[in-house]
């Protein structure tokens, strides 16, 4: 593999660029974002189903971009990028998933959600957040708290 | 004697095959940079995790939630600006494949302008939040929202500087091993921003809007 020394533009990582591939990556991901935005603004799907649908849109868009833009495939030249990405994905998901799971369990066991949402007492923290008093819905709390 | 002659002379033996292989500098650098970008992905993982645990109803402390200020079509315009910027850079790299210097520079300039559009829309959006009295200090949920979106915007900012630097280097140095290698790493960086933006747009903006 003694490429590149004479003419770096002949390097395989340069040569694997294709306008068609970049355009496909753009078109697929832009179309999926359009679908997701349309569904979200039209309120035609119930929230949980909507979350599932836009998650699928995100998943397909990311796969299309990783394949067409980042050239992640099983070709000889890119195999180590692919291996690194495949090993990265579990770390990414575990970091987010375990953190979210731990805190959701913590909230479940330590907080009374009905109290938290309806009868919060922001007065204790009012000095730390001067902007809060100006927000809609915050006036009653600050008055009663002080 | 004949078998003796074929044994290896330790003083003359070549232990390593040093011939016929030159060090592929560009591939080594791009793989190293890709590993760096994956660690950058872990930075975003921690920020997404923080947003995940700070996007409960109580996280907003009775103040505004993303459902109250996110404008999906506005952020969709940002999305298209960024995707088009990524597309323009891709077309520029396709011109590099054909040693077309002006095509490359035009692609990079288009990518720069569209990246600026993305960033201006983002700054305008943040000013809008600020005018509504929403700041980092408003609530834990807003801290997580602003930090996550603005860390992504910071990536775009430094990417724009990098694009300008590479335009200057291509114009002055031409297509050397160094400049071509840097164009490839910038391509990875810029295209990865689009991938991360998909997560930010869907799971922070749109999910925040519907929840």
TrEMBL record, chain A:
The major lineage groups are:
Bacteria, Pseudomonadati, Pseudomonadota, Acidithiobacillia, Acidithiobacillales
Q: What is this protein called?
A: Cytochrome O ubiquinol oxidase
Segments passing through the bilayer: 21-42, 48-70, 82-103
* Keywords carried by this UniProt record: Membrane, Transmembrane, Transmembrane helix
TrEMBL record, chain B:
* The organism's place on the tree of life at top rank: Bacteria
Q: Tell me yes or no: is Transmembrane among this UniProt entry's keywords.
A: yes
Please give, as recorded in its UniProt entry, the membrane topology of this protein.
Answer: Multi-pass membrane protein
Q: Which residues cross the membrane?
A: 33-53, 73-92, 104-123, 156-176, 188-210
* Subcellular location per the Swiss-Prot or TrEMBL entry: Cell membrane
Q: Pinpoint the Heme-copper oxidase subunit III family profile domain residues.
A: 1-209
Q: What keywords would UniProt list here? A: Cell membrane, Membrane, Transmembrane, Transmembrane helix
Can you tell me which family this protein belongs to? Belongs to the cytochrome c oxidase subunit 3 family.
Recorded hits in PANTHER family, A to Z, give: CYTOCHROME BO(3) UBIQUINOL OXIDASE SUBUNIT 3 (PTHR11403:SF2), CYTOCHROME C OXIDASE SUBUNIT III (PTHR11403)
Q: Tell me what this protein is called.
A: Cytochrome O ubiquinol oxidase
